[in-house]
Design goal:
six-stranded antiparallel β-sheet, elongated, 12 helices, 23 strands, eight-stranded parallel β-sheet, alpha/beta
């Protein structure tokens, strides 16, 4: 029997079009990024190619940067109120082919294909009273006009409070995931659902829609990763998120600002006990390399190299999904070296039990375990973070680290620099000099 955990036994790793292309990515650009991933990143575990928001809008980006999303956009729809790719941007979708030709191309490279959707049903389908597959109800009968997104006007939420409308809502979600299965979709990012932040008194107001979507994926016959956005996720609903989704955002959109990165330490601390078993609290995309072209402001990341290592260290030891938000073909060699370090990426795929050991205004320490038998000893990973604006020693008593044997002499492995360090006793005070806003990642075994 299909389980949602089968879709994401480890945190998904891939690329998402949003941070660089915003709403305007084209098929040619998606293929170029897929080609680059297949040639340069696939062997390191990167595998998802995800087309983000408004792929069904032929006019996407026409009001940017003044207005990010075209108000009341004329989305391309099929006869059953379901979004289909705009052929002006995705030529292979013409003639009813949808995303299948693009998905086939990506699968042919040995990669997986994903898309972004907003929760609910398109407003233009509702206003036109279009059909809904699998029911006699029309779109206006299953929409909730009082359930809307505060930052994107494309959709109405679905009516889940009345039994007749609920059945229609279930039929609609079943129909769109039936279509996605036909296309060959492997990953679906659903937006305005993890935190419906227009409704501050009830930020988890779309709980029933999450259940309908999870059920539709289960019934469609094709495993798909279910990713929920935006955040911050509601910690009191961790049980529900873990039951129905594979990924959920623990932050709002994350960009290349040190203050935002520093704040992620607290967010990861809050969610550290909810990681694993096909459930991956999501720190959001990795904004390195080139960013912002679709926003009208192409630029390099504002993160220093030290901050990039801090981001990747925290994301990896915490085991967040890793989604690159950049134009892959423009990555420089140093950025490539960061995201192809097998020793660091091993934490994301194969470690467990990550916890924050301590955090102050000046430093933070995390630990986790590698694979192995506890009775016979297993690798211990230790991440040391400098949160200050100057270089300083980050220190921790190894006696505080679970799994470290006090009587044993270790030769820690520096995973970022790929070299062994000085010998250290298991009961010593470990001090490592770390650059401003930087991180050291060590392995003890």
């Amino acid at each position: 029997m299909y389980s949602k955990n089968d879709a994401a036994p480890t945190p998904p790793m891939g690329w998402n079009s949003y941070d660089y292309y915003n709403t305007v990515v084209t098929e040619e650009q998606v293929r170029a990024n897929a080609d680059f991933m297949a040639a340069n990143l696939k062997r390191f575990g990167w595998e998802y190619i995800v087309v983000d928001i408004q792929w069904s809008d032929p006019d996407a980006g026409s009001t940017c940067p003044e207005i990010q999303y075209v108000p009341f956009a004329r989305l391309c729809l099929d006869e059953y109120s379901r979004q289909i790719p705009a052929p002006e941007r995705f030529p292979s979708s013409a003639g009813g082919a949808g995303f299948k030709p693009l998905a086939d191309y990506i699968h042919g490279l040995g990669l997986k294909f994903g898309i972004h959707i907003m929760r609910g049903i398109p407003r233009n389908a509702v206003h036109a009273r279009m059909k809904v597959k699998g029911t006699d109800l029309t779109a206006d009968k299953i929409a909730n006009p009082f359930s809307v997104c505060k930052w994107n006007g494309d959709m109405y939420g679905l009516e889940t409070g009345r039994s007749c409308a609920l059945e229609g809502a279930r039929a609609y979600y079943d129909s769109i995931f039936e279509l996605y299965a036909q296309w060959g979709v492997d990953f679906v990012k659903v937006d305005d659902i993890c935190n419906t932040n227009l409704y501050t008194g009830n930020p988890y107001s779309a709980q029933k829609e999450i259940e309908l979507i999870a059920g539709a994926i289960e019934r469609c016959g094709r495993p798909m990763v279910l990713s929920l956005s935006p955040g911050p996720a509601v910690i009191e609903k961790a049980w529900h998120l873990g039951k129905y989704a594979n990924m959920w955002r623990i932050t709002d959109d994350f960009w290349d600002k040190w203050d935002a990165l520093k704040a992620m330490f607290e967010r990861c601390e809050v969610w550290q006990s909810h990681v694993g078993g096909g459930c991956w609290p999501d720190c959001d995309m990795i904004p390195l390399g080139r960013l912002g072209k679709g926003f009208g402001e192409e630029r390099g990341t504002n993160f220093t190299r030290a901050e990039e290592r801090t981001m990747l260290t925290l994301w990896s030891i915490f085991r967040s999904p890793l989604m690159l938000g950049t134009d892959l073909p423009q990555l420089d060699q140093e950025s490539l070296s960061l995201i192809t370090n097998e020793e660091v990426l091993a934490l994301n795929g194969r470690s467990h039990g990550a916890v924050q050991v301590m955090r102050s205004e000046s430093q933070c320490v995390w630990q986790s375990f590698g694979e192995g038998c506890p009775a016979k000893g297993r690798p211990v990973y230790l991440a040391l973070f400098n949160l200050e604006d100057r270089a300083r020693d980050v220190s921790v008593h190894l006696s505080e680290i679970k799994g470290i044997i006090p009587e044993k002499t270790y030769t820690p492995r520096d995973l970022w620099n790929r070299k062994n360090m000085f010998p250290v006793q298991g009961d010593a005070l470990l001090c490592v000099t770390v650059e401003p806003h930087g991180a050291a990642l060590l392995k003890f075994e």
